[in-house]
Input
Amino acid sequence: MTHDFLGRMARSSEESRAAGIDALIVTPSADLQYLVGYDAPLLERLTALIARSTARPVLVVPELERPRAAASPAGELVDIQGWHDGEDPYDLVRRLLPDHVTFAVSDRMWAAHLLRLGEALPGSTFVTTSGVLSKLRMRKDRSEIDLLQKAASSADASLARIAAEGLEGRTEEDVARSLVRLLVETGCDAALFWIVGSGPNGASPHHEPGQRRIQPGDMVVLDFGGRAGGYCSDLTRTVSVGEPSAEAKEVHEVVRHAQEAAYQAVKRGVPAEEVDRAARRVVEDAGYAKAFFHRTGHGIGLEEHEPPYIVEGNATPLEPGMCFSIEPGIYLEKRFGVRIEDVVTVTDHGAERLNHAPRDLLVVG
Output
């Protein structure tokens, strides 16, 4: 899959100038992958992309990482300058940049690196790159959406196969191990995360799979995803092991309607918070307001969680190319939980689901 890295660098330069930022200093992160295609290891040794509007970008790397950097797309996009153990990489950065200006640094830059850069450039101001790069990364191009679709299709296929395998009598950890295997077998480069919450454990949205054995009558929350070409999937379905109770059917139906209402609310120009409100109204009207206590969704791309966040207070207008999850849930403590989640992308005429797994309550063995 070919990405337009030159275009991304040009747009980031334009956004930087408009924001009064003199250079970007980007350490290993999704931002670095987005700009130059280098998935650098996160180390105590400094790796930093120095992106200046007035000069060719430079990637500062530990010498032992130079071959890896040169083999990535960055090798054809930037100048690579290596530094050896025992040398001061922050002094190298200082020599590449003027002082007494404004730099945007990675949101997730280690504090140790930021403090040393502050010492090397004592008269400068540091802000975060999110003001520049988030607005670019929020809108996915066709190549990105295709990879998100590949990852989503893998998650759909993995759900179908785990349901066919059956859950009864298995531990949560065993089911999780199967999901890891299935995500790779169905098209992902690697599994990214896996939540298996059975029975009362399903009432904890981020439950860590454990040794509890799945029993007949359990509702089981399956929330998992992998990465394809660097881009993530995130799918949740809640299944019933054997015939569900009347209450479980009711709660699942409320969540299904809430998820559909949120999906129908996705339109170009609509504030992100309106999608959250659409889901929440359905849950509140059914009497479960206190049992839905997290946001309705989050952006997804090179990171599992990234802007735009589908939450009250986020008035960001939705634009074509934005991709995010829609995942309302109801959690009844010590009893069970239900969550249904798809990844969607905003189009010129509304929204398109990237996940196509059934949203009706699935009964499994």
Summary: Residues 45 and 260 are 47 Å apart (CA to CA).
